[in-house]
Amino acid sequence: MKKLVLLSFAALLIMACQQKDTRYTQNSSEIDVVKKHIENYNTKNYDTSIMADTCKSYFNTKNKPILRKDIIAYHKANDANYTKRGFLSEDQEFEMVVTDNGETWVNAWLDWRATLKESGKVVDMPIHLTYRFIDGKIVREVGFWDPTEIVLALQEIEAQRNITVE
């Protein structure tokens, strides 16, 4: 009986020490892909090879995605408004989670800064990005931020143009 208790205890101890699947981490190959994606954005090297062909990007929307084939044009159109723009290197936070359904997501909290081309106004804003991965590729990109300051600044620039024309 004593041997049975000791054997049972040893079996429980071994099972308890076995490594479980990682459900949360701040270091993963998927996080490295997102960091490279951020670096590519900052250097205007729009490399979509890390995205699946079917990838959809949702920026401040939940029902109007930008398709992978259109994402470069989207960024270039926005770049026309800035002399410089990009994510700041300080205070970046990344995490990877595996959901109860087995989906792999990487979350990023970043600060973004841009200088408007026509006014020289500098805008800083926090941005949250999240990426769903399948087989090492981004299949969904979601970003949320408050664009109010930029929208108002661009409207002010447009109003100044209209006053000058009249």
TrEMBL record:
Signal peptide annotation:
1-19
The protein's matches in PROSITE patterns, at most eight in alphabetical order, are given as: PROKAR_LIPOPROTEIN (PS51257)
Q: Which Gene3D superfamilies match?
A: 3.10.450.50
Task: For this UniProt record, give its keywords in alphabetical order, as a comma-separated list.
Answer: Signal
**Signal in keyword set:** yes
Q: What is this protein called?
A: SnoaL-like domain-containing protein
Species annotation: Jejuia pallidilutea
